[in-house]
Amino acid sequence: MRVLGVASASAALALGVAGNALACDISEFSAEAKCDGAKGVITVTDVDPSGVPATVTVYLENNGADVKKVGEQVVKGSREGVTITFDEDWKPNAEYRVHVKAEGYVDEDIKPNLITPATACKKEEKPPAPPAEPTPSDSNSAPAGDTGTPAPSPSKSESTAPSGASSNAPSPAAGAGDSNLAETGANSQTGIIAGIAAVLVVIGGGAVFFGMRRRGASSDR
Length: 221
Description:
With 221 residues, the chain is α+β, with helices and mostly antiparallel strands. The protein is 33% helix and 26% strand. Keywords: Membrane, Signal, Transmembrane, Transmembrane helix.
């Protein structure tokens, strides 16, 4: 009987140790700040082989105080490890507190607090677009104000002046005096004509005088 009692106690102790070894423990949780492309994330991995559900809560810290609650998720670990992800655009050298609570097993923070890398996640830079090349329509376009319609050519009547137009138009005068003389008919022979007219007047007057004298003499006889 004594032997059986010792054996039972040994078996119970072994089962207790094994149960404690399989129980959820804070050492089975780890946190890390990563980059998912240009976006920052915080991951928490649970390697608890017993698969005890645990609630993981992440807080942003500043001078030992919680600034904001990043998020909260439930994880069931495995021997291979189960990872949950929190979207967080973390800043370089930022501090986060990660708390794990599994009812009846663990209720504490992952130590030490998570410190993010000194380099932020790089955003993908798009290469600059090449300069736009002018299209043929742009290079061959007509200047501003040109509608592309050719101007109508002048008609025959507009392009050719009438034959008589130049003969009827007075020629440009050399001076005001010359134009007046041309219009009145005066020229360099005006003095000669005036002298001939005066002689004719004198001759005519003499003829009239002698004619009247002869007529008076005849009447006296």
